[in-house]
């Protein structure tokens, strides 16, 4: 009876043959989803990127519903799709954030403080970074952005400061003439 030498399993079972490597093609559906991701990135005023720890489906669903009620969309995409979406775009710098389990929140409005309030109730979602006003912000910068007043309030504060400065200038200019009038008044009453 002939004896055949057994091939090592690492060479036969776990490596792809040259034929299998040639057959693998890009899935066109992944390209469609990548375009969708890029569209979300381009048209969202606020994007938040979270690391997603182990979470049960009910908690994830409740978080998604709470965010949806505030006009925010919670999405999960694979690393390959994110890489395809951001390749060669201005968002290419966010690609390393997707090495682990993650989720993304997209919003058509800048609602950073609302987002932070809602995600505080879901400790499994850990904020890593965000994009607001076309700027990539770290976690600390993103939370600092939430404490800034809105544009209308900032404008009102600026107008108040400018009005106060204008009033102070007028007061300072009139102070010398009022002082001179008071001195002349006292001098005129002293001569009588």
Sum this structure up briefly:
The chain is an alpha+beta fold and 192 residues long. Helix content is 55%, strand content 15%.
Q: Could you explain how this protein is built, in words?
A:
- It is built from 8 helices and 5 strands.
- The protein has 192 residues and is an alpha+beta fold.
- Strands 2-3-1-4-5 form a 5-stranded antiparallel β-sheet.
- Helix 3 (28-43) crosses helix 5 (79-86).
- The longest helix has 41 residues, at 151-191.
- It is rod-shaped.
- The relative contact order is 0.12.
- The model has no long low-confidence stretch (mean pLDDT 84).
Query: Average pLDDT, to the nearest integer?
Result: 84
Number of helices: 8
Going across the biggest sheet, name each strand in turn.
Answer: 2-3-1-4-5
Structural class assignment: alpha+beta
Q: Could you say which overall geometry the principal axes of the C-alpha atoms support? A: rod-shaped
Based on DSSP secondary structure assignment, what is the total number of beta strands?
Answer: 5
Radius of gyration using CA atoms only: 32 Å
Q: Uncertain runs with pLDDT below 50, 5 residues or more?
A: none
* Element pattern in H and E: HHHEHEHEHEEHH
Q: Strand share of the residues?
A: 15-25%
* Assembly state (oligomeric): single chain
Distance between the termini: 146 Å
- Characterize the biggest β-sheet: 5 strands, antiparallel
Please give the share of residues in helix.
55-70%
């Amino acid at each position: 009876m002939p004896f055949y030498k057994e091939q090592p399993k690492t060479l036969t079972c776990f490596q792809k043959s040259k034929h299998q490597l040639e057959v693998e093609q890009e899935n066109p559906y992944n390209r469609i989803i990548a375009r969708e991701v890029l569209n979300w990135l381009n048209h969202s005023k606020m994007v938040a990127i979270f690391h997603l720890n182990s979470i049960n489906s009910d908690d994830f669903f409740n978080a998604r519903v709470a965010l949806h009620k505030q006009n925010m969309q919670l999405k999960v995409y694979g690393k390959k799709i994110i890489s395809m979406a951001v390749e060669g775009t201005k968002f290419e710098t966010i690609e390393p954030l997707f090495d682990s389990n993650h989720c993304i929140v997209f919003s058509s409005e800048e609602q950073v403080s609302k987002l932070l309030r809602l995600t505080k109730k879901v400790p499994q979602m850990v904020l890593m970074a965000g994009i607001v006003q076309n700027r990539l912000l770290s976690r600390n910068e993103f939370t600092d952005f939430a404490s800034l007043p809105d544009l209308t309030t900032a404008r009102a504060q600026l107008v108040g400061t400018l009005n106060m400065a204008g009033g102070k200038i007028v007061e300072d200019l009139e102070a010398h003439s009022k002082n001179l009038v008071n001195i002349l008044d006292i001098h005129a009453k002293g001569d009588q």
